[in-house]
Amino acid sequence: MSPGDEGDSAGSREREPGGAPRRRRDLWIGLLIGLLCLVVYNANLRSIPAADTYGARYLPFALWKHHTVTLDPIAPLVAQGRKIARLPGWTNSAYWIVRGRNDHAVSLYPVVTPVVVAPLYLPAVLYLDARGWDPWRLDRVARVMEKLVASLMAAASAALLYLLLRRRTGVATAGLLTLAYAFGTTTWVISSQALWTHGLAELLIVSTLLLLTGPFTPRRAFAVGLLCGLVACNRPPDVVLAAALGCYGLWWAGRRWPLLVAGGAGPVALVLIYNLGVAGHVAGAYALVGKGTFFEHDLLSGLAGLLVSPTRGLFVFSPFLLVLLLGGLQVLRDRRLCGLTVAICIGVALQLLLYAPTDWRQGASWGPRWLTDCLPMLIWMLPPVIDRLSGAGRLAFGVACAVAMGLQAIGAFWYTGVSDAPLYAVVAGPDKMRAAWTPGNAPFVAELRHPPAPAELALTLRGHIDVAAVSGGGDASGSGDVTTGRRIDVEGWALGSGRSPSEVIVLLDGLPAGSTGHLFERPDVVKTLGYTEPSGWRVTIPLDEPISGERTVSVLVRARAGGDLRYLGERRLAMAADRTAPVREHPAAGSGADDDLARVARTAIGVVASRQQAAGYWLTSFTGAARHLHPGREMNTYLNAVMLDLLDPVATAAGLVPNLVRAREFLADQIEADGLVRYHGRPDAATIGTLGCAITPDADDTALTWRVAPGADPERLRLALMTLGRFRTPDGLYRTWLAPRDRYQCIDPGRDPNPADVGIQMHVLMLLAQANPAAARDLCTALGRAIDDDRIWVYYQLAPLLPLLRQADLERVGCPLRLPTSRSRTLVPGQEVWLLAARLLQRFAEPDGPAPPSSEVRDVLHAIAMDDFLSLRSAPPLVYHNDLSASVRRYYWSEELGYALWLRLYFEDQRRGSGGTR
């Protein structure tokens, strides 16, 4: 007989003698646990959101201010300046927004969470009504509210979970399990840090369990139905969890089951109305962009990945949950709640089977995010198992809880997302998931390689876009602008809590078009606000083709190095066609995804052009570890020569000829009277002391510069070749530094103070192929003998990208050298995709072999370009490093080289598609 038939026998424990004082004590303990959680969850002073949470962050403001469940009134803010795609396809667009019925902008994700939490936003709405709804202010308030509301829901779920557990076990066990749930699972790093749907799901499931394990009443039956309906509507994969609880609830309600069904029908009906009337599909916005291949992964490997992988495994991040497997049938020991336990086990098992055939890497997030929703159920099943543990078993369980809490603390204070990039470096093939099984890629390992994440929640961004205007046109001779001479000038000011921001990024029609880290003093800002830090910024966007119509310019600001991007605002420009500009014909790219790649190519071209400095050079980033975090900047001749090599074959198609002319002129000017070239350029250059030092001349930069930007004086080349010859080793290789040891300047030598590096041999050989073919043949033979010797892998030991690219160049000059397989790999996270791109270019260059399939090339192009080149910005190409045996290590990166490599691959594919030769 069910509790609904019997009355309220299920709640008999609540009427035991002394029950009222115990309940009051438990309520106070639960409240204290909730307050503790609220404090700890906010101790990192930052949120950990993703694009998935943007809709929930901002939609409550649309509900209060504009009385709508669409994002139309606030779409630019929700898109964070990016373009809202009108067709399926996520690359470089605000994929978290889709076009629903009547072209309304709607959230890709269910609206239950933002609608449920909207009442909590009322104080923020009143504040904005009083202070103004400026975009930067609304964005800041929304970020704060997202964190506060998310942490409040997570804390509430922990408090209620304690009350739930007290119905099964004593104070000590209930307290320990609640703390393990609150701080030893993704409840901390996922649910409490941003408005994921998981936070509300946990709160709803805990509340449902609290009702189902309490005394039956008609109101409780209706509430259980309501909560189960909300669970299912809030997150579609949780339908199986809601069904499990609902099925038990039907038995629990007995003859009163229609009350439970009526409660569940309400939210389901409302969501169906929204799905059909607003999103335009019965299954909601998910169905508008869903892919049929989503469930086509291997089931067994997916189960293993969800449970035990080092990057996403539930039992890795919360090892104390292993006791459920070890306890076996102990979870069924409580006969009174055996039915509920069986229902929960079935629900959790079905959810695992639902997720297993998908891509279990789960996107850019911390740990086993997808399994967060079932955590209250798993914790609820633990007391019967814990009660049967021996003293040693309890100690081991406590240690496992402590380990789990430590791992989650790393996520709360260190996680920035850089650990996610390596997981997606391989786009397809049998090695696609290998990185997710690499222990070194575990986020609690990888994220500790950089300092704690900036605490930016309290940061106040202020600023304004003063100017967004089109200028120029016609002849661009001497202007430095690409092709048309037209440009968009964007100017304004920005401050982050009174300090100069790290970077200002300008987007054109939702795509990155330019950026600057150079700020200058604005006397008007100093006078008005009293802040003396430089706040003014200026970005010029070259227009590489004649365009007309309305264009949107958006500005994002990164207040601190390594911090989040903040939305400053946007301006719309009405542009007339430039009839004087020549029209460049790009190869036809078809439609759909190919058109998207063409738009991305224009973005990459704009970034490469806008980041070239006025003197003609591009800067290089450097770090002290093999991670692209908090980099410094320098000027060197090496990168600029490589940029010329990479872009020269596609410069005309890309409209970058004027930029390459300026780069060549800059490099040619670095050749000194003796014909030698220094890494940081001439010792009297304006960049010495700020972007470099007066370093000793070297063979690498001398060879590179003479080949790509030869000087006008042949006598200087003769002198340079003579000097190179003096630093040749007995086995026919060429050393790095073109001076004796006692004349070294600005050098931190390693074990070999003047090594003969593999990359230097390649560059010297390419120069000799032009200037002294016989010497080139001798060097080719010597390099072939030493190609696998550790002694020549000095600057590319961890960075084989450039040697891979040079294989085709060497073959063209008659030296068909192949790198050993062991030298063509890297363990540096995020670099595999760049090596893959280099191998594709190698296949394009092979005269006798087939070109790579276009589908394979475009998969790589899309992978690199995803989310506004997110992987490129977080893990750009590692071009080289210094001698790792030196006293200080340095690793050199270049986003610009990444864009150039992307463009080279794109145009090679397009040239093949238009019938051009390889």
Automatic annotation (TrEMBL):
It comes from the Bacteria. Keywords: Membrane, Transmembrane, Transmembrane helix. The chain crosses the membrane at residues 27-45, 108-128, 148-165, 172-190, 196-213, 259-283, 303-325, 337-356, 368-386, 395-415. Residues 1-21 are annotated as: Disordered. This is Glycosyltransferase RgtA/B/C/D-like domain-containing protein. It comes from Rhodoplanes roseus. The lineage of its organism: Bacteria, Pseudomonadati, Pseudomonadota, Alphaproteobacteria, Hyphomicrobiales.
